[in-house]
## 1
Amino acid sequence: MSPASPRVSVVVATHQRRELLGLLLESLEAQEGMAPGEMEVVVVDDGSSDGTWEFLQERQNSVPFPLHPVRRSTAGGPATARNEGWRAAAADLILFTDDDCRPAAGWVRTLLGVLEADPDIGLVQGRTEPRREEWEGSGPFARTLLVVDEDGYYATCNMGYRRAWLEELDGFDEQFRQPYGEDTDLAWRAIKAGAGTRFEPAALVHHAVIPSSWPAHVRDRRRRQWIVLTTQRHPELRSRFHHRYWYEASHPRALLAAAGLLGAAAGVVSGRPLAAAGAVLVAPYVRYRLVERRLPSRPVNQPAAIALALVADLFEVGVMARASARYRTLVL
């Protein structure tokens, strides 16, 4: 790295999130402990049509750090966009965050310090939490991210890498076309190649809370298919699953509940007293959603929320089953 190069490059892939991107840039403007020229930001606009590119060009001259926008005419997915970003970056140390995140004021300094202090650390993960004021009362199908330890998934919303490892591994695998699993795959390839890891809780990123929407929640389940491909490549992930083969603890309970409901319906048609047996099979799912993983909604709305959650879980099991067949790796 030449003397004129920055100490660290922050790389962001963005798609159709102009408003959230503005909040991210404000958070990066507020970073503490970084002298002028020590940090650059590379933002890859992955085929947005919401004015993101014009917004980035406008902000280039108003932020206190070098901002380098990269434009992709068509969306290629986050793996492709992040690869373009880190390859366009000037520093030997690369930090990744997402366009729906707001790093705390000491985020860059903290991750940079970990990487500079120990050359054996190839990748470092920070802590990710939703903003409390956004999460409280957000509804049963709101979406965010909580990472409080090294969970094995290495979400790129809060990661640091040495460029040398990104170059050796050729970056993210661009076969992953949606934002799910590509970051986990990269991290595990680095670990298997010998890169040391560190979890640094002081490096905090606040993740946006996507408003509660059941249709959006169901649509989002489709991208879970990519974790099956990741598991095929890295069976070590199974230790993070529920009994190794269930991606979520709700999934086996959802299948039992579906069997119970179908049995009870068959009983109504045939005139057989199967309602009690059906209730027994449904009960574990209801208990899970009321006690073990309570849906954040008002008590009066709980029955409807549980019913909708059950449908979403069954849809997700179907997505995982189809991917399991495609990749010949069982994850449900």
## 2
Amino acid sequence: MEFLLLVIVAVVFGVVAIYVVVNDGQKKSPKRRPRLQTRPAPPADNPYAAENKRFDDAILKMMGSEITRHFYAKLVDITQRNEDGTVREKLIPTCKPFEFVDVVWESENKYDPNAIAIRKKRGPRLGYLNRQTAEEIATSMKRGTVWRACVKMAKPKVSYLHGCLVVCLMEMKDTQVEAKH
């Protein structure tokens, strides 16, 4: 009886060992890319690289040396309704590349005192910056930094796919000095 039990245990271990060896290559997870890259990916890896370069060149030419830094952010909460009942996502087709939009710090926002809304010029809310980006922008705005934004990409809702609005956020130079005077 003990011999039979030893044989069964040996067979089970043998099957498990073979399974592990055979499936080992399939179990390995692919290498994860770092979240933030220090240099842009080459055009072969990033189909938007050429478009991003053209946009960067154009915005820097338009704004000149007024910009300290700039980056892109995709708006969140675009499927929500504004106070007047307008669904923000329906406003996306009205946005055009290089259109300037307002960056509004909503310090009285009941959900997040660092909330940063992006609005059409003196118009309806298009959406918000994500919480982490909003915190960074709000903190700098508390110190007097002025931020401007313009539309980089506006993709309207298509069928079951939600729309997308990407803005270029620009930190303006010397605004802290001007704000103190």
